[in-house]
């Protein structure tokens, strides 16, 4: 199961709360977050490029998309093992994140060539497992930006990157996420209002029903 949303939407908070609620309900749960900063050379290259390193790499839509995909390819075996060993596997960002952001960067939609490329690369070629469901934690771009700024101010190690500081990109990405959800891209999508605190216990009950 994948949790998607804008930078600052509250994905990590929801992942932690939902993990606790699912475990309290008796389910065994494993979690993984992408990009895997500090654990994957491809993820680290992403972070460095988003902070202005490696020349014009950060400006390349397909170059950055490939690095995100390679980060997940490196985790593919681990994900398969987690699926076998647990009732629920929660992924904080996954393939849809790559599709949404790269389409938004090109000012295109969910039916664009880059979205098809992401699916063919990550699912068909790299063999990443298709998620059972997506949870789209939906907040307005303004709310997400405010939360991201607050997070960066509270934790100097999480300075906002080039994507997070681009308000127009975040707005376009929000629209692509909505399109992916409406199309049930890859698997069923469930849209959750993230403007207020999400009732993780109720959500866990619904997911396990």
From TrEMBL:
**Ranges for the Thymidylate kinase-like domain?**
3-199
Cross-referenced InterPro entries: P-loop_NTPase (IPR027417), Thymidylate_kin-like_dom (IPR039430), Thymidylate_kin_CS (IPR018095)
Q: Name one GO molecular function term.
A: kinase activity
Which family is it part of? Belongs to the thymidylate kinase family.
Decide whether keyword Nucleotide-binding is in the record: yes
Q: Superkingdom, according to UniProt?
A: Bacteria
- Which EC number(s) are documented for this chain? 2.7.4.9
Return the protein name: Thymidylate kinase
């Amino acid at each position: 199961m994948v949790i998607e949303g804008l930078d600052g939407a509250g994905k990590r908070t929801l992942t932690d709360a939902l993990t606790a609620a699912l475990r309290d309900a008796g389910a065994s749960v494993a979690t993984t977050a992408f990009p895997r900063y500090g654990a994957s050379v491809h993820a680290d290259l992403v972070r460095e490029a988003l902070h202005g390193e490696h020349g014009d790499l950060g400006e390349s839509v397909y170059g950055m998309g490939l690095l995100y995909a390679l980060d997940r390819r490196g985790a593919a075996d681990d994900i398969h093992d987690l699926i076998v060993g647990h009732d629920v596997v929660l992924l904080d960002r996954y393939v849809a994140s790559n599709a949404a952001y790269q389409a938004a960067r090109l000012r295109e939609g969910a039916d664009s060539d880059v979205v098809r490329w992401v699916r063919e690369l990550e699912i068909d070629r790299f063999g990443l497992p298709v998620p059972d469901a997506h949870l789209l934690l939906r907040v307005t771009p303004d709310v997400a930006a405010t939360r991201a700024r607050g997070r960066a101010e509270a934790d100097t190690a999480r300075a906002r990157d080039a994507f997070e500081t681009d308000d127009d990109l975040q707005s376009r990405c929000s629209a692509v996420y909505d399109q992916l959800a409406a199309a049930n891209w890859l698997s069923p999508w469930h849209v959750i209002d993230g403007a207020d605190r999400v009732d993780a216990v109720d959500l866990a009950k619904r997911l396990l029903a």
